[in-house]
Design brief:
324 residues, mainly alpha
Amino acid sequence: TMIAGLASGAALREFAKTDRQLTGLGIAAGKTRDEMRNIFDGIQDTAIKFRVDDSEVLAALENVNKTTGDLDFGIQNKGMIAASIAASGSQGDSIGGLFSQFPKFGLQTEKQTLAAMDTLNLLGKEGAFELKDIAEKGVRAFSMYSAAGGSGVKGVKDVGVVLESAIDATGNRDTAATATENLIRDLQLPKVVDTLKKKAGINVYGKDGKMRSLPTLLEEIAKKSGSKGSEKQNKRLLEAGFNQDSILLISSATSGKGAENLKRYQSVVGDGTGIMKDAEYAAKDFTSALTSLNVTWKKFSNSNLAGPVQDLADAINSVDQKTV
């Protein structure tokens, strides 16, 4: 009777949609239906705690599994993911994409991933590239920098710092992300590496063969190339093989406010407390209260529907196809 009463209702539609999502994720992650039900139970508890939509946390975990192939890593960090969604106001899918970059930097524990996310959140407050923007636009830059040797919370911070300097230079999120990507790419070009070493005495790579800190390189190149004014600087950088986007970023960080900001961004240190405070603050507004109420109701109706719906599905599945 409950199924009949709810067959045309929103609760059953919501249940069916979530059930299908969990089925897809379960297949992709090699988990049983029971395991997925338990996982979703935990997702809903976490969503209620941080007062975010459970579908956003689920979307984040789907992206983590798609990108890393490691759903368990996402589940272990689901509290941090929910807090990041709450604090940034970002979509779960974007936060999941950003979070998926962290293992590439060797970050595995919740303490490490929380420190990295908190650092990016603090950088977003210092500059104009907020955590939401970083999650939506910065993922490729993180991927490129980790491939060049960036590691640890410091590696994640390096990219965040340069994204902040890039938006100071360009005033636009898309062009700032592109400029950061181009700088990482340009610094790996043999001509650029060679010219910087011979003409400026700057080593792009450390003794370990990995790229040195990106903000440090940006600072050194800006200082050396800009020693005789901006016109000479442009010519020097073009001849060295830098792309126009990279040149704009380097020249912007050479003196005045740009150089000051680059130093200021580098002094930011996140320990995980800031993002949790922001999440707590966001959880106190009316929208968050409604979201929490909605997820609590969904959890209640899901637990009541799970049994009857499964019975109905089993009954339908057991009917001989010819009879149908």
